[in-house]
Request: fold
Amino acid sequence: MGKKWRRRNYFIKRDLQGRYIFTFFLFVVIGSILFTVIFSLLSSNTLTVVYDNYNLRIGKTPLILLKDILSAQWIFIVFSGLVVVVLSMFLTHRFAGPLYRFEKTLESLIEGNLKCRIHLRKKDEAKEMADLFNVLIERLTINLKEIRRMSEDIQRTISEPGVDRDALLSSLGKIEEDNKRIRDILKDYTLEND
Reply:
């Protein structure tokens, strides 16, 4: 049985993932604080009796409960914060990975490499956009191959030895035909300032 694949790079795009992890953590903290404030406001006019280590205490409900929650549940609060951070890191992988893949593919396209394609993992987001990118790359590849073939035909026609008038007219007709096909291909594209 072959080796099982293991994730080695937990942060694909550090700044992006860091911002989202911090935002998720901040939402949880703000939600907890908001819950505590609302609970305190709703129970501010009540008294609570607490029996603690053979002592009987009477106090306002929000203060007594807040002290007890923080003293008894601080481990749970820290553990929950860590769980939120870890879960948000893995959730951000679903869109940070595709963004990274799009960037690398676009860099490759800018360099003129049309062999690249975007392949995403099974649970990644933006698969539809990756498919559209791949269709665009395939269309560009087909059109550029056709233009290259016609350019080679023109070069062959120009390079053919033959000086007689009929061969020259035939060559010009072939060049005009290839040039028309090139213009038809280029007509499908809209360029800036065109």
Notes: The chain has two domains: 8-112, 126-194.
